[in-house]
Design a protein that fits this description.
By secondary structure, this protein is an alpha+beta fold. A hairpin with a 2-residue loop joins strand 6 and strand 7. It has three domains: 97 residues, no CATH class; 116 residues, Uridine Diphospho-n-acetylenolpyruvylglucosamine Reductase, domain 3 (2-Layer Sandwich); 110 residues, Enolase-like, domain 1. The strands form four sheets. It has a five-stranded antiparallel β-sheet with strand order 4-5-10-6-7. A four-stranded antiparallel β-sheet has the order 11-12-13-14. The N and C termini lie far apart (52 Å). It contains 13 helices and 14 strands. It is globular, with a radius of gyration of 22 Å. The longest helix is centred in the C-terminal third of the chain and has 22 residues.
Protein backbone atom coordinates (compact mmCIF):
# COMPACT_ATOMS: atom_id res chain seq x y z
CA UNK A 1 0.00 0.00 0.00
CA UNK A 2 1.46 3.36 -1.06
CA UNK A 3 0.37 6.26 1.15
CA UNK A 4 0.70 10.02 0.68
CA UNK A 5 2.93 12.06 2.95
CA UNK A 6 1.53 13.19 6.30
CA UNK A 7 2.65 13.91 9.84
CA UNK A 8 1.30 11.81 12.73
CA UNK A 9 0.39 13.66 15.93
CA UNK A 10 0.01 11.66 19.15
CA UNK A 11 -2.03 13.38 21.89
CA UNK A 12 -1.82 12.27 25.50
CA UNK A 13 -5.36 13.43 26.41
CA UNK A 14 -8.72 13.95 24.76
CA UNK A 15 -8.43 17.72 25.23
CA UNK A 16 -5.05 17.71 23.53
CA UNK A 17 -6.48 15.71 20.62
CA UNK A 18 -9.30 18.23 20.18
CA UNK A 19 -6.80 21.09 20.26
CA UNK A 20 -4.74 19.40 17.54
CA UNK A 21 -7.82 18.92 15.37
CA UNK A 22 -8.70 22.59 15.72
CA UNK A 23 -5.15 23.80 15.09
CA UNK A 24 -4.65 21.85 11.88
CA UNK A 25 -8.20 21.93 10.48
CA UNK A 26 -7.28 24.35 7.69
CA UNK A 27 -4.33 22.23 6.58
CA UNK A 28 -6.21 18.91 6.43
CA UNK A 29 -6.36 16.61 9.45
CA UNK A 30 -7.98 13.25 10.09
CA UNK A 31 -8.42 11.06 13.16
CA UNK A 32 -6.60 7.72 13.21
CA UNK A 33 -8.21 5.11 15.44
CA UNK A 34 -8.18 1.54 14.11
CA UNK A 35 -7.26 2.77 10.63
CA UNK A 36 -9.08 -0.02 8.80
CA UNK A 37 -10.99 2.45 6.62
CA UNK A 38 -8.82 5.55 6.82
CA UNK A 39 -5.57 4.03 5.57
CA UNK A 40 -7.35 2.30 2.70
CA UNK A 41 -9.00 5.57 1.71
CA UNK A 42 -5.65 7.38 1.81
CA UNK A 43 -3.72 4.89 -0.30
CA UNK A 44 -2.23 6.12 -3.54
CA UNK A 45 -3.50 4.53 -6.75
CA UNK A 46 -1.40 1.76 -8.25
CA UNK A 47 -3.39 1.23 -11.46
CA UNK A 48 -1.69 3.22 -14.20
CA UNK A 49 -4.75 4.92 -15.61
CA UNK A 50 -5.75 6.06 -12.12
CA UNK A 51 -2.36 7.50 -11.19
CA UNK A 52 -2.21 11.32 -11.32
CA UNK A 53 0.14 12.54 -14.04
CA UNK A 54 2.75 15.26 -13.74
CA UNK A 55 2.33 17.84 -16.49
CA UNK A 56 5.63 19.49 -15.62
CA UNK A 57 7.52 20.42 -12.44
CA UNK A 58 11.04 21.08 -11.22
CA UNK A 59 11.83 17.37 -11.20
CA UNK A 60 10.14 16.61 -14.51
CA UNK A 61 10.28 19.78 -16.61
CA UNK A 62 9.37 17.78 -19.70
CA UNK A 63 6.13 16.64 -18.08
CA UNK A 64 4.07 13.62 -19.20
CA UNK A 65 5.28 11.45 -16.29
CA UNK A 66 2.74 8.72 -15.57
CA UNK A 67 3.34 8.60 -11.80
CA UNK A 68 3.86 11.53 -9.45
CA UNK A 69 4.98 9.42 -6.50
CA UNK A 70 8.54 10.76 -6.81
CA UNK A 71 7.40 14.16 -8.04
CA UNK A 72 8.21 17.28 -6.02
CA UNK A 73 4.61 18.33 -6.48
CA UNK A 74 3.69 15.79 -3.78
CA UNK A 75 5.52 18.10 -1.40
CA UNK A 76 4.62 21.47 -2.92
CA UNK A 77 0.98 20.79 -3.68
CA UNK A 78 -0.94 18.71 -1.08
CA UNK A 79 -3.84 18.25 -3.46
CA UNK A 80 -1.63 16.03 -5.60
CA UNK A 81 -2.01 13.42 -2.87
CA UNK A 82 -5.71 13.13 -3.57
CA UNK A 83 -5.16 10.15 -5.84
CA UNK A 84 -6.86 11.53 -8.94
CA UNK A 85 -6.06 13.69 -11.93
CA UNK A 86 -4.81 17.23 -11.47
CA UNK A 87 -7.57 18.66 -13.61
CA UNK A 88 -10.47 17.17 -11.69
CA UNK A 89 -9.43 16.56 -8.11
CA UNK A 90 -7.59 19.82 -7.57
CA UNK A 91 -11.07 21.32 -7.42
CA UNK A 92 -12.42 18.76 -4.96
CA UNK A 93 -11.43 19.58 -1.38
CA UNK A 94 -13.25 16.49 -0.08
CA UNK A 95 -10.66 14.26 -1.80
CA UNK A 96 -7.63 16.09 -0.52
CA UNK A 97 -5.27 13.91 1.49
CA UNK A 98 -4.66 15.27 4.99
CA UNK A 99 -1.35 16.75 6.03
CA UNK A 100 -1.84 15.47 9.59
CA UNK A 101 -3.24 12.37 11.27
CA UNK A 102 -4.14 12.54 14.96
CA UNK A 103 -3.50 9.06 16.35
CA UNK A 104 -5.65 8.16 19.36
CA UNK A 105 -3.78 5.03 20.42
CA UNK A 106 -2.63 6.52 23.76
CA UNK A 107 -6.14 7.50 24.88
CA UNK A 108 -6.80 4.35 26.89
CA UNK A 109 -9.76 5.98 28.65
CA UNK A 110 -11.70 5.65 25.38
CA UNK A 111 -11.35 1.85 25.39
CA UNK A 112 -13.83 0.35 27.83
CA UNK A 113 -17.20 -1.32 28.32
CA UNK A 114 -18.97 -0.37 31.54
CA UNK A 115 -22.41 0.01 33.07
CA UNK A 116 -24.05 3.41 33.53
CA UNK A 117 -25.46 4.41 36.91
CA UNK A 118 -28.97 3.86 35.50
CA UNK A 119 -28.14 0.34 34.29
CA UNK A 120 -27.43 1.22 30.69
CA UNK A 121 -24.18 0.52 28.88
CA UNK A 122 -21.32 2.88 28.05
CA UNK A 123 -18.77 1.86 25.41
CA UNK A 124 -15.64 3.88 24.73
CA UNK A 125 -15.20 4.91 21.12
CA UNK A 126 -11.86 3.08 20.82
CA UNK A 127 -13.33 -0.26 21.91
CA UNK A 128 -12.65 -2.71 19.10
CA UNK A 129 -15.36 -4.54 17.23
CA UNK A 130 -13.83 -7.85 18.33
CA UNK A 131 -14.13 -6.84 22.00
CA UNK A 132 -17.81 -6.06 21.43
CA UNK A 133 -18.30 -9.33 19.59
CA UNK A 134 -16.74 -11.31 22.48
CA UNK A 135 -18.57 -9.52 25.31
CA UNK A 136 -21.14 -11.84 26.98
CA UNK A 137 -22.81 -8.79 28.51
CA UNK A 138 -23.40 -7.14 25.13
CA UNK A 139 -24.51 -10.36 23.48
CA UNK A 140 -27.02 -10.97 26.27
CA UNK A 141 -28.53 -7.52 26.71
CA UNK A 142 -27.69 -5.73 23.43
CA UNK A 143 -27.77 -8.68 21.05
CA UNK A 144 -28.26 -6.62 17.90
CA UNK A 145 -24.94 -4.85 18.45
CA UNK A 146 -23.08 -8.13 18.93
CA UNK A 147 -24.72 -9.56 15.82
CA UNK A 148 -23.78 -6.44 13.89
CA UNK A 149 -20.11 -7.14 14.55
CA UNK A 150 -20.31 -10.86 13.79
CA UNK A 151 -19.98 -10.48 10.02
CA UNK A 152 -18.33 -7.07 9.87
CA UNK A 153 -15.20 -7.26 7.72
CA UNK A 154 -12.82 -10.04 8.76
CA UNK A 155 -11.19 -11.11 12.04
CA UNK A 156 -8.29 -8.77 11.24
CA UNK A 157 -10.65 -5.84 10.64
CA UNK A 158 -12.61 -6.57 13.81
CA UNK A 159 -9.40 -6.76 15.86
CA UNK A 160 -8.29 -3.31 14.65
CA UNK A 161 -11.51 -1.51 13.79
CA UNK A 162 -13.32 0.45 16.50
CA UNK A 163 -16.96 1.09 17.30
CA UNK A 164 -16.38 4.84 17.15
CA UNK A 165 -14.72 4.57 13.75
CA UNK A 166 -17.59 2.54 12.31
CA UNK A 167 -20.04 5.20 13.46
CA UNK A 168 -18.01 8.30 12.49
CA UNK A 169 -17.33 6.95 9.00
CA UNK A 170 -21.06 7.45 8.43
CA UNK A 171 -21.50 4.74 5.84
CA UNK A 172 -25.16 3.89 5.12
CA UNK A 173 -24.41 0.18 5.50
CA UNK A 174 -22.22 0.35 8.65
CA UNK A 175 -22.92 -2.87 10.55
CA UNK A 176 -22.28 -1.46 14.03
CA UNK A 177 -23.88 1.94 13.42
CA UNK A 178 -27.24 0.51 12.33
CA UNK A 179 -27.75 -1.53 15.55
CA UNK A 180 -26.52 1.47 17.56
CA UNK A 181 -29.37 3.51 16.07
CA UNK A 182 -31.81 0.64 16.56
CA UNK A 183 -30.88 0.38 20.23
CA UNK A 184 -31.49 4.09 20.83
CA UNK A 185 -27.92 5.04 21.73
CA UNK A 186 -26.64 8.52 22.45
CA UNK A 187 -23.22 9.68 21.21
CA UNK A 188 -20.91 11.77 23.39
CA UNK A 189 -18.94 14.37 21.40
CA UNK A 190 -16.04 16.15 23.09
CA UNK A 191 -14.64 19.39 21.68
CA UNK A 192 -12.65 22.43 22.74
CA UNK A 193 -15.80 24.15 23.94
CA UNK A 194 -17.08 21.21 25.98
CA UNK A 195 -19.10 18.02 25.68
CA UNK A 196 -22.46 17.40 24.06
CA UNK A 197 -24.70 14.38 23.61
CA UNK A 198 -26.60 13.65 20.39
CA UNK A 199 -28.91 10.78 19.35
CA UNK A 200 -27.22 8.25 17.09
CA UNK A 201 -29.91 8.56 14.41
CA UNK A 202 -29.25 12.29 14.07
CA UNK A 203 -25.47 11.96 13.75
CA UNK A 204 -24.99 11.10 10.03
CA UNK A 205 -26.21 13.65 7.49
CA UNK A 206 -25.06 12.06 4.20
CA UNK A 207 -22.69 9.29 3.10
CA UNK A 208 -19.42 9.99 4.90
CA UNK A 209 -20.74 13.18 6.54
CA UNK A 210 -21.88 13.87 10.11
CA UNK A 211 -22.75 16.74 12.43
CA UNK A 212 -19.39 16.46 14.22
CA UNK A 213 -17.45 19.72 14.38
CA UNK A 214 -13.82 19.97 13.19
CA UNK A 215 -12.49 20.11 16.77
CA UNK A 216 -14.69 17.30 18.15
CA UNK A 217 -14.08 13.64 18.90
CA UNK A 218 -16.63 10.90 19.44
CA UNK A 219 -15.57 9.64 22.86
CA UNK A 220 -18.38 7.36 24.06
CA UNK A 221 -21.51 5.56 22.90
CA UNK A 222 -24.19 5.30 25.58
CA UNK A 223 -26.89 2.65 25.26
CA UNK A 224 -30.06 2.90 27.39
CA UNK A 225 -31.09 0.33 29.94
CA UNK A 226 -32.24 -2.93 28.37
CA UNK A 227 -35.50 -3.71 30.25
CA UNK A 228 -36.39 -7.17 31.49
CA UNK A 229 -38.85 -7.95 28.71
CA UNK A 230 -36.81 -6.72 25.77
CA UNK A 231 -34.99 -8.33 22.89
CA UNK A 232 -33.04 -7.21 19.85
CA UNK A 233 -31.66 -8.66 16.63
CA UNK A 234 -29.65 -7.65 13.57
CA UNK A 235 -29.23 -9.27 10.18
CA UNK A 236 -26.86 -8.39 7.37
CA UNK A 237 -27.97 -9.42 3.89
CA UNK A 238 -24.94 -9.49 1.58
CA UNK A 239 -23.65 -11.31 -1.47
CA UNK A 240 -21.22 -13.25 0.73
CA UNK A 241 -20.75 -13.78 4.45
CA UNK A 242 -17.47 -11.92 4.99
CA UNK A 243 -15.57 -8.91 3.64
CA UNK A 244 -18.68 -7.58 1.96
CA UNK A 245 -20.79 -4.45 2.26
CA UNK A 246 -24.40 -5.25 3.08
CA UNK A 247 -27.13 -5.03 0.50
CA UNK A 248 -29.63 -4.50 3.32
CA UNK A 249 -29.08 -4.36 7.08
CA UNK A 250 -31.93 -4.41 9.62
CA UNK A 251 -31.75 -3.94 13.39
CA UNK A 252 -34.78 -4.42 15.66
CA UNK A 253 -35.36 -3.70 19.35
CA UNK A 254 -38.63 -4.70 21.02
CA UNK A 255 -39.79 -4.02 24.59
CA UNK A 256 -42.87 -5.83 25.87
CA UNK A 257 -45.09 -4.81 28.77
CA UNK A 258 -44.99 -8.42 29.99
CA UNK A 259 -44.36 -11.88 28.51
CA UNK A 260 -47.02 -12.50 25.92
CA UNK A 261 -48.29 -8.95 26.34
CA UNK A 262 -48.43 -5.90 24.10
CA UNK A 263 -45.46 -3.96 22.79
CA UNK A 264 -44.35 -1.12 25.06
CA UNK A 265 -41.75 0.24 22.64
CA UNK A 266 -40.07 -0.76 19.39
CA UNK A 267 -37.29 0.56 17.17
CA UNK A 268 -36.32 -0.59 13.68
CA UNK A 269 -33.16 0.74 11.99
CA UNK A 270 -32.36 0.12 8.34
CA UNK A 271 -28.98 0.13 6.63
CA UNK A 272 -27.96 0.43 2.96
CA UNK A 273 -31.42 1.61 1.92
CA UNK A 274 -30.87 5.36 2.06
CA UNK A 275 -28.10 7.97 2.11
CA UNK A 276 -27.77 7.36 5.86
CA UNK A 277 -28.98 4.60 8.18
CA UNK A 278 -32.73 5.08 8.63
CA UNK A 279 -34.84 4.85 11.77
CA UNK A 280 -38.18 3.46 10.56
CA UNK A 281 -40.51 5.90 12.29
CA UNK A 282 -43.72 4.30 10.98
CA UNK A 283 -43.22 1.07 12.92
CA UNK A 284 -43.96 2.25 16.50
CA UNK A 285 -47.38 3.60 15.47
CA UNK A 286 -48.23 0.15 14.10
CA UNK A 287 -46.97 -2.02 16.96
CA UNK A 288 -47.01 -0.11 20.25
CA UNK A 289 -49.97 -1.18 22.39
CA UNK A 290 -50.62 -4.31 20.32
CA UNK A 291 -49.82 -7.94 20.98
CA UNK A 292 -47.12 -8.73 18.37
CA UNK A 293 -48.94 -11.51 16.59
CA UNK A 294 -48.38 -12.56 12.98
CA UNK A 295 -50.72 -9.94 11.54
CA UNK A 296 -49.28 -7.07 13.58
CA UNK A 297 -45.72 -8.00 12.68
CA UNK A 298 -46.62 -8.23 8.99
CA UNK A 299 -48.17 -4.76 9.12
CA UNK A 300 -45.10 -3.37 10.89
CA UNK A 301 -42.75 -4.94 8.33
CA UNK A 302 -44.71 -3.37 5.51
CA UNK A 303 -44.51 -0.01 7.26
CA UNK A 304 -40.72 -0.33 7.57
CA UNK A 305 -40.44 -1.04 3.85
CA UNK A 306 -42.35 2.16 3.19
CA UNK A 307 -39.80 4.17 5.19
CA UNK A 308 -36.71 3.17 3.20
CA UNK A 309 -35.26 5.12 0.24
CA UNK A 310 -32.94 2.73 -1.62
CA UNK A 311 -31.17 3.14 -4.94
CA UNK A 312 -30.18 0.73 -7.69
CA UNK A 313 -26.53 -0.33 -7.62
CA UNK A 314 -24.36 -3.36 -8.35
CA UNK A 315 -25.36 -5.01 -5.06
CA UNK A 316 -29.08 -4.92 -5.73
CA UNK A 317 -31.96 -2.98 -7.20
CA UNK A 318 -34.09 -0.56 -5.23
CA UNK A 319 -37.09 -2.85 -5.74
CA UNK A 320 -35.19 -5.83 -4.31
CA UNK A 321 -34.03 -3.85 -1.31
CA UNK A 322 -37.56 -2.74 -0.47
CA UNK A 323 -38.76 -6.34 -0.60
CA UNK A 324 -35.89 -7.50 1.60
CA UNK A 325 -36.54 -4.77 4.18
CA UNK A 326 -40.08 -6.07 4.56
CA UNK A 327 -39.00 -9.73 4.75
CA UNK A 328 -36.11 -9.15 7.16
CA UNK A 329 -38.03 -6.76 9.40
CA UNK A 330 -40.78 -9.35 9.79
CA UNK A 331 -38.31 -12.12 10.62
CA UNK A 332 -36.30 -10.02 13.06
CA UNK A 333 -39.36 -8.68 14.85
CA UNK A 334 -40.42 -12.26 15.49
CA UNK A 335 -36.93 -13.14 16.79
CA UNK A 336 -36.77 -10.04 18.99
CA UNK A 337 -40.19 -10.75 20.45
CA UNK A 338 -39.13 -14.32 21.25
CA UNK A 339 -35.98 -13.02 22.90
CA UNK A 340 -38.09 -10.59 24.91
CA UNK A 341 -39.83 -13.53 26.55
CA UNK A 342 -42.73 -14.66 24.39
CA UNK A 343 -43.58 -16.38 21.12
CA UNK A 344 -45.86 -15.44 18.25
Amino acid sequence: MILPQFDVLVPETVNEACAMLAEHAEHGVRVLAGGTDLLVNLRRPIITQHVPRCDGCRTHPEGAVSSTIDCTMWESEPLMASGGSLRTLLRDQEKTSPEFLVSLHKLKELKNIRRSDDGGLRIGALTTLAEIQRSPEIRQDYTALAEGTDNLGSPLVRNRGTLGGNIVNARPAADAAVPTIGLGAMLTLHGKSGTRSVPAEGFPTAPGKTIIEPDELLTEIVYPLSPTYSGSAYYKLANRKALEISTVGVAVWVILEKPGGPVADVRVALGAVGPTPILAKSVPAVLIGKVPDKAAIAEAAEAAAGDCRPIDDHRGSAWYRVQMVEVLTGRLLKIAVERAGTTT
